Amino acid sequence: xxxxxxxxxxxxxxxxxxxxxxxxxxxxxxxxxxxxxxxxxxxxxxxxxxxxxxxxxxxxxxxxxxxxxxxxxxxxxxxxxxxxxxxxxxxxxxxxxxxxxxxxxxxxxxxxxxxxxxxxxxxxxxxxxxxxxxxxxxxxxxxxxxxxxxxxxxxxxxxxxxxxxxxxxxxxxxxxxxxxxxxxxxxxxxxxxxxxxxxxxxxxxxxxxxxxxxxxxxxxxxxxxxxxxxxxxxxxxxxxxxxxxxxxxxxxxxxxxxxxxxxxxxxxxxxxxxxxxxxxxxxxxxxxxxxxxxxxxxxxxxxxxxxxxxxxxxxxxxxxxxxxxxxxxxxxxxxxxxxxxxxxxxxxxxxxxxxxxxxxxxxxxxxxxxxxxxxxxxxxxxxxxxxxxxxxxxxxxxxxxxxxxxxxxxxxxxxxxxxxxxxxxxxxxxxxxxxxxxxxxxxxxxx
Length: 447
Prior knowledge:
The protein is an alpha/beta fold. The protein has helices at 3-20, 22-31, 88-100, 110-122, 133-148, 190-193, 202-209, 235-245, 264-268, 295-305, 323-335, 339-362, 387-392, 396-407, 428-446; strands at 55-59, 62-65, 70-73, 126-130, 152-156, 169-171, 177-179, 194-197, 214-219, 249-253, 275-278, 289-293, 368-372, 375-379, 411-412, 419-421. The chain is built from 15 helices and 16 strands.
């Protein structure tokens, strides 16, 4: 790759972005008056272009910004809007539930339907509600420590499970647990809380759990937040055997890997976790998450939460399990992300993958593309087998250019990765648009 040409083309794309987004630029300037860095959340500064795009409205698999530019959305709220923007069933359910009362600290009947549907989809017997996957993971870690009497957890190197302090870690060169680069103000010494093992490394996992101080292993069945890294054949079956042998609870976080099917990788790959966590996609855009557990684990958990001090146990919160969130989950899971939806979504992801692959192969580039169900991502290198290799393979300059080039032509990819997620509302023409934009991006750099 000619880096000088890349820099020149990137500058041209910045200028094009500025010309076509004047209203967003104006709002971004105003936002800096009283919003830190001009955004509601820090990572919103990471979008391509010199300032964020401000959205006017979104529907299905598309959105329109305040300048009137329309986009095919392959980010889908980084899975939060995987079921589609402005789902009619969710909109109606939220309006009706708001009319009847949003939160009373008491359960609603929808909670029973939701738990039954979660059991049907994912296979675990007992369920609890949270506001976010971060909360759900945090609660599960507390419960795992309590019922095992062990102080540490284990996670995968370069994992991501929300903003849980003990999981913002990486593996050091000497095998030590280190704070993940970029972690702000960590609250604890992660050497005391967490053991870290590389993905697809069974020997390292066995050694880490052999210490006898690990309560649970928290992991995605395939890495997604460091890019898509797929498990080796037989890896997850071996993880199940190793965790059981060491008396370690196995926690699977499927907040992103739900892309594998209606029951996530857990159902598609016949996995057998002790705990299961999933967040944003199940609420149709509403903040909500859930965590499930086997009957055997639930019996031990129920003995804990029967205490009269459970309200100060560090599990739950006043708005957790509110009626509005549960109404959204019922409306989402009863109408979408069903078998027929995933059949179409996975076919579209396969077509997206083929379009990208044909384009870079025609240029004789040593790039690759990975697909996980309805999600796909291209790499500028051979597919990595673990998180450290994925992190080392990142090409920030080229990533930024490809994202901005696509954005300027009406295609939004998932930030931080060259990744696309299909929703029930995407169609073949949307994939064709991306394929052409991808082909044109290569031409801009190589012709």
